[in-house]
Structure formats: structure tokens, C-alpha cells
Amino acid sequence: MRTLLALALAILAGLPLSLRADKLSFVTTEFPPYIIKQGNELSGLQVDIVRELCRRLGHEPDIRVVPWNRALGLVKGGQVDGIFMPVYTKERAEFLYFTAETSGRERISVMQRQGGDIRATTLEDLYGELIGTVLSYSYGRTFDGQPHLRKDVSTTNELMLKKLAIGRYRLVVSDEGVARYLARQTGELRLETVLVLQDNPQYIGFAKTLGKRGEALAEQFSEALRQLKRDGVLKDTEDRYLAGL
């Protein structure tokens, strides 16, 4: 028995990092249908992608869902290995190794109920409208820094959409996938886009406190993401969560 155990350990020690089953800790935030948290169960488009990437690379993912600002703080401080769904910024690049390959997109838009009559080509066209937003969310510099927009602030996306449904206002701003998914959950609310504010690629980031290991992980996950796209697995996963939204 001791001989077999020693042999197994020797084989494991000789495997490259990408084939060893080491645990990787990730943080992200609740963002259905990308990250769905129901009790202690996690699912969602991006959760499934990260789990599949880890499976292919021989890692065991430990995923925690926390508020976004806290997630950024944890990975910046080196308390976790990685974060998924961040958009690239110069500030974040100071503490994250970003994958070269994208894992998804963030499309932020002003939206109205399906069949609404509001039309806009710029934010200036919406100055007279009250727009639903969510506390502590950023919708891009142009929207966030626009002093002439009238904004109603809710604590959650769900509450924001309930206010839209009862006519508190006619417009909301949100990631399109999130808003459409949550609206569909109500069974009655359908949405359409009035104005696209930004359409940004999203990545997986690894803490720079990991040093060269973090850089290597970013490279490994980049190649695995490319393979997911070539295999059609990424598209199949997207279709499973986003079809019909």
C-alpha cells in the first residue's frame, strides 16, 4: 500500500500545473442569467463556463458570490485567486492579469416595455424621462456623469423592474441579458432596447499577487477559452441561457 501511495504521489508531482487538480478560488457577483444563486446552489452562463474551463485544465473551482466592489477588493488584496466577468480598465489591470480571450460581453442599454413609444439617438433625447437605476451600479462614464438625467434608484434589479411594470417610470438602464432574464421571470414584462450605451468584452482575471503563477493561469485560461469557442461549447452554453430573451 505504501509503495502504491508513493508511486501515485510521484506521478502527481511530475504532472504539469495544467493537469494537477489544485483548487482555484474565484469571486463574482450575482448577475442572472450569468451568475444565478439559489440558496447554496450556483449556476448560470458564466459559472458553467468557468467550471468547464477548470475541468479541462485540471483545477477545482471554489466560487464565492459577493457584492461587486467587495469582489474586486478581495482579488486586489490577494485573498482569492481570480474573478470573472470584469470589463478591462487600466485601473483593474494594475492588480489583475486578464485573459487575452473574452469570456462574454456586457451590453448596457436604456430599455422600455415592449411596444413603448420612446425613441432616442443620444442621452439628451431622454432628459425629460425618469430612468430606473440600481444603487452602486455603474452604467459607464457618459451615463453616470450626465447631470441632466433624472434617475430613480432601486436597491435591486428586481425592484427596478417592478417599478417599471407598475408605471413608476417608462425607462430602465441595465445589462440587456440581466434585464430580459429577470423580466421573463415575471411572466408578463417584455422589454425592448431604446439606446445602447456601451457594449464591452468581459474577461477572467487573476490576482497579480500570484506573481508568475497568475500570469500563467491567465494564459492557460485564454487558450482553453479559444478551445471552447472552436468546439462550439461556448455557443451551446450561451444558447442554453440566453435563447428567447
UniProtKB/TrEMBL annotation:
SUPFAM superfamilies: Periplasmic binding protein-like II. InterPro entries: Solute-binding_3/MltF_N. Residues 23-245 form the Solute-binding protein family 3/N-terminal domain. Keywords: Signal. This is Transporter substrate-binding domain-containing protein. It comes from Chitinimonas arctica.
